[in-house]
Amino acid sequence: MRNVIHFPLQSTMADSIPTLASLDMRPYLADGALPSDLNGKVGIYAIFDQAQTLQYVGFSRNVTVGLVQHLVRCPEQCHWVKVHTVERPSRTLLDEIRNAWLAENGAVPAGNSDAQLAWEKPIDAKTFMTDAERQEIADADPTEINKLLKQVARRVEVDVKAKVEARGAQMPIKFNPKLKEQGILALK
Known about the structure:
6 strands, 13% strand, disordered N terminus, alpha+beta, GIY-YIG endonuclease, 2 domains, four-stranded antiparallel β-sheet, 37% helix
């Protein structure tokens, strides 16, 4: 369910806030890669699904890194993107732009409400454990738990990479090996 929101704009910021409608809709992936002109740029972005319905609005100190993380975490929802880069970033400005875009959309997308953790946090492979894996960990010697969690993370990693590849991405996806022992898939 989408909530209608109204965010007031600070008058000092309103002049530097582009409307979401004024930005070009760009393919998330072109020839298997993210837009190369965004690498190393600070900016704010709106991510859309295949039907061009807004899914998430976020910002990053490196737009490319942020977009890769979202593609890995929510590949089915990442088909289109609108981006605004900023030369002199400030958290206040980026928050104002996000609020303006969410207000312009008329509803908060799931990625900024109910599904926010899926969009913003590393993948917790433990949430994808089978009943058999849960039982194996419950019955395991405490010294074996990290090994078993790593196995679960590796299994989930294969699924995640397959979904990203199915979207047409041709970029290397590497997860932090130390966090796999905790059942966490976080990009390196």
